[in-house]
Request: fold
Amino acid sequence: MSIVDLEAKIPNNVGLRDNKRLMMALERWQPKFLDWWAKLGPTDFNQDQIYLRTAIGVGQGGWAHFDYVKMPDYRWGIFLADGPADRKIHFGDQLGENAWQEVPGEFRNRLRRLIVTQGDTEPASVEQQRQLGHCCPSLYDLRSLFQVNVEEGRHLWAMVYLLQTHFGADGREEAEAMLERHSGDADNPRILQAFNYPVNNWLDFFCFTAFMDRDGKYQLASLAESSFDPLARTTQFMLAEEAYHLQTGENGVGRIVKRTGELMAEGKDPRTVGAIPLDVVQRFVNFWFTGSMDLFGGEDSTNAAESFANGLKGRYRESDGIYKDPKALSATYTLEVPTEDGKVVTRDIPLRRAMNAVLLDAYIADCKRIVERWNRDLEKLGVQQRIELPDHKFNRHQGVYAGFRFTPQGKPIDEASWTHQHTEWLPTQADRDYVQSCMKRVIEPGKFANYIAPPQQGVNNQPIEFEYVKFH
Amino acid sequence: MTDFHRHPDSYHHWQLSIEGDVAHLRMNVDPEYAFQPGYELKLNSYDLGVDMELADAIQRLRFEHPAVKVVVVGSAQERAFCAGANIWMLAESTHPFKVNFCKYTNETRLSLEDASQHSGLKSICAINAACAGGGYELALACDEIHLVNDNNSAVSLPEVPLLGVLPGTGGLTRLVDKRKVRRDRADVFCTMAEGLRGKRALAWGLVDAIWPKSQFTDKVQARAKELAASLPEKAKRGITLEPVHGERTDTGYRYQHVQVEIDAAGRTATITVHGPKGAQPKTGADYERAGSSAWALRCFRELDDALLQLRFDHEQVGLLVLKTRGDRAALLQVEQDLFANRSHWLCNEILLQMARTLRRWDLMSRSMYALVDAEACCAGAFFELTIGCDRVYALDDDRVQFAIGPLSNGALPMSHGLTRLHNRFLADPGHGQKLAAEQPTLAAAEADEQGLCTYLLDPVDWEDDVRIALEERVSLSPDALTGMEASLRFGGAENCDSKIFGRLSAWQNWIFTRPNATGDEGALTRYGAPESAKFDWRRT
Reply:
């Protein structure tokens, strides 16, 4: 197992001590990062003591160390998952050759773009969520928010490490630019549009972590297959942290659904007691789920084909050997394609061009699973209403379905019907105003806002009423 | 026949709006409205149909909206300025189509540059989002390039790294010759698929200004107004450009002043151009009243259309035979009036149109022979067409005359900037200059003596010798002829324009047909295909 240097200014398991050039570069970048955190992170909470886990190693369980820490003192470090020294490329045109320890020149720009696009989302979400702490539904949830925030910060470190190590002066410039772009900044926005909207209520936050972070998981998972070994190992470790973020979202929406279900089972109208009706939750789910699908890129994509052929991005769990043909050369993928006359036809495209769609399918299956979990709570409570995952064609702004109108069930409709009905399907201003009105700050240990059920258990075996945040 | 006529009322891909002396031309390509079936025009990518509208818009700004001093070329799409020529369209096109497409699009861009130089119509390119390949080549044709500085939008020429071909619309040449980007930086830029953004694009001279996203529209608009204010006043009212539709006949095309007869078996097309008939305008005001029906404008627009038909719809025709008809004196009178009134905006535009058509003539990748027979009207601009040909066959007959007019002395320059007379007599520049200055009318024998005829044929030999000449020519390798003619037609020093065409017909043509680009495993073939390209690594 690799040695983790926790005493270093920048904790790491990549032997930073012996790489003076890289250490200098990262040490130059560190104050800029801290400055960014102080200005655009959860600024008003920087003096508070948060019960956070910190990565201290990459072995099983070794990384989950819990203690109170002020967020600016969090030990952001660089950790790569351990991997076999002689890893072979396991998909694409170079199948069977040695994985690359250095960036091959011919893929340099493409890899850099992949890393920058991924890296840019990490600080972006911290910026999007920076005001949320003020209306937390509990200390438990406040802690979760900050845990997500500091780990997204660490994920930025992970990407910056790759840029600084493997991409020379360009990489250093890109690392700086990640701190210069800001979510929602009119002149200098984050690269992906979905990361430029503020996330100001907790239903948005939980939907964001349930769906957008889950997109992140699948993007990271495809990079974790990469033939560029440092990228694969970095993202493998990020995935371990990301799992917690998904849980936060999945559980958060689930607890809101459960609380509403409880009130409905008691015969109460959720609206009269500050809880969130299921149809409102449904519209938020529709919005975030469809937005997250747009992040996968076009279903029929030459870029995706290139990235697979070159061995830069694999399929989900490619290394588990679950796909028959690791070169994906002969197979086709059947894609639903909308036509101008309002129909949907199927078209077979080469599998490699459909790699985004393949990844998206895995993601959708995962999302179906979490929605089923939410519905099980409703079923147990005897509530008839259900949350439904909309069809993948509904409300899309990227890919083959962009520009076409579909119902959440996937039925093609015309523009007039859309105009007439879309407020039933997507959050209205009234919905947002109502959800905002439910956002009451609750900071008494063990207490929760009325729109959300308590979690099953506390963090790190602590009780639910544990003081997860100590305000200064 | 291909309909090259377009009108702003029915554009599918561009929005033209005019406010006082500033026009906005916004690209908004309808992905579903491709020129040919089989591909979608995503992200403001373009094909021939898109470029026909652009060419039309520039023509209309010149003739119909002379008051416009600045045109802002932008995009109506938020996510893309222009992704360049559509790759799927290129991949499914035949080689001759690709080359003709590149030539046509470059002629469109040249007309934008020509308008800037000679019509007082400056252009500003407003790059609001990603701008790749042909998109950046369009920008290069503008006088100023403004780029949004949003840390994301880049300008790029990704042809080499992505497709294994060259930018097909003069991008490489304009980069170093027009914008004078340093060669090593140009080298880096042209091999970097993702291109360059903001500050570095500015520092390297790829763009002229960068603006924050929130100020972009205002800053570009302010610059357009400022630039317009710095330019001299222009005419307020334009004319209407009526379409010049030709009629398809069994054997060719018939226009009012131009006829094309195609001998498919002989792979020869005879183009007959007719001089003015009836009263023609004399003054600028007369021309404004006559509008687009004036012979000088109509005839050359018709010829322009005919040449495009031949290029796109008659790839097999290897030899163009020119015949001129009409009254020499009447033709020369028209030219004298136009030339005398060349400071009038419309006379100027008509002369520029004639010059552009003549350059399109010079750039036909077909053999061209002029037949100066007893009925010929080898005068003025028709004389220019004649000596623009690869060979001039003249009949030794009293009725044959060569009449050099006032436009031969610089008003109708070739692509490389020389007059056709200068280009013809490179060994003795004084001779060409003398003919251009004195504008003599010469009998056949004199013309031959002065070097204007390739062959002066006796009437007895005429028919047979001409027939043999044509038959012999069309028997030669079409590829070799294209290369040979392009080399021989343009003597003397090159300029940016001629280099672009020279490289188009040489390097671009060659690379397009090489296995490394279009073979089964070539980069263009394999673009977007499951497998990556495989190269033959030998350098040529």
